[in-house]
Amino acid sequence: MLIPLFEWFDKLGISGTGVMQYVTFRALLAFIFALILATLVGNKIIDYLRHHQIGDMPRDIGVDGFDLKKGTPTMGGVIIFIAIVVPALLFCDLTNVYVWLMLATTVILTSLGFLDDYIKVFRKNKEGLSGKWKIVGQIAVGLILGLTLYLDSDVVIRENVETVQTEEITQINYSQHDIKSTQTTIPFVKNNNFDYKWLASALPDDWQQTAGWIIFIIVVIFIVTGTSNGSNLTDGLDGLTAGICAIIGLGLMILAYVSSHIEFASYLNIMYIPGAQEVFIYMAAFTGACMGFLWFNGYPARVFMGDTGSLMLGGLIATVAIILHKEIMLILFCGVFLVESISVMMQRGYYKYSRRRTGNPVRIFRRAPLHHHFQMEPGSVESLIKRPSHKWHEQTIVLRFWLITVLLCAFAIITLKIR
């Protein structure tokens, strides 16, 4: 929104107004603005939520014997939403199709989560929005994303097609023309991008590309749904999801920047994606918003993000990875989300299996998702896994999960070079 204004100022010869053409400058502004905006609006929103008693959610008892969670408002994801969308509208190029895809994901999933929290808080229904309607909303986001990437003529890449090795350097050559493609980057594999149309290789040649796009859209729906739900399941301790998403956001910022710069893309032997610089700026706002939210969500939390924030954060991470053709790397970036989701599936599956098999249901973990397993007192609930032998403090769990995410994101980026 500010880009045309500053371009006009620059034409008038006003000194310094040309800085808006620099991607790194706009990204830094978006980050700073998002972080400050989150802290500024956060207090007002929290006061409003407290005044209207939105989200009296007593949970775990603190070490001093007081319920630190009692009376903590929820629906704080509104803070993150505002802190992402406002800087994005101000500093991103609004003619870029990727910006509108990310905005659509942000708005739709925030609305879906808000509706879920609204039902829980105002209608006093602990179940919230029906799971099938959540899935419908997530599928809708996946369809919008997949179909837009398929149909929009501005969504193109330049494929890294040839490696020229000399005695001193390795040079990556790119195709001369922008193309639409269903390819994605594979970690550890040199000179090879996986193409979804290969899964339809048994079909006639004329049909393979169309079949590849159909498979791609199905994969997009699965990834958006899985990552959004993974983020939602991880949101259970003060600062856990917000901190993890800030770290992932920083990693995706790096991928977006190198993907939009043909020299850096060549150095890492990855696809060059025209227009991905705006993804870099949007993710700068995303990261700043998550960090700003931690001002209020760190232990002991003054506000919970609720589904209003957690569904959107995971879905937006998935959207960005798909835009950058790096969705396979989400296995590493979102490793904590993946393990948390698997722990829930294992817990429910084995509980039902043991109850049906022996009549005596057995848990694998003391409690799922996994972060609660480490939080519960040893021996408080029978489970197959007995360790750790002592209870971890909430802050310890959060910090360690953050550090694991840092390692996973760093390793994911390193894999682009170790091929």
Features:
419 residues, mainly alpha, 2 domains, globular, 14 helices, two-stranded antiparallel sheet
What does this structure look like?
The protein is mainly α and 419 residues long. The protein has two domains: 26-329 and 401-414, no CATH class; 334-388, no CATH class. 60% of the residues lie in helices and 4% in strands. The protein has 14 helices and four strands. It has helices at residues 2-11, 23-51, 77-91, 97-122, 131-151, 205-234, 240-260, 262-268, 277-297, 306-323, 330-333, 335-358, 370-375, 394-414, and strands at residues 160-165, 170-174, 183-185, 193-195. The strands form two sheets. The chain has a two-stranded antiparallel ribbon with strand order 1-2. α2 (23-51) packs antiparallel against α3 and α7 (240-260) packs across α8 (262-268). The radius of gyration is 23 Å and the shape is globular.
**Broad shape:** globular
- Please report the distance between the alpha carbons of the first and last residues: 40 Å
The overall number of domains is: 2
Number of strands: 4
SSE series: HHHHHEEEEHHHHHHHHH
Give the spatial strand order of the biggest sheet.
Answer: 1-2
Kindly state the mean pLDDT as a whole number? 89
Please tell me how large the radius of gyration is.
23 Å
| Main sheet overview | 2 strands, antiparallel
Strand fraction: under 5%
The DSSP helix count reads: 14
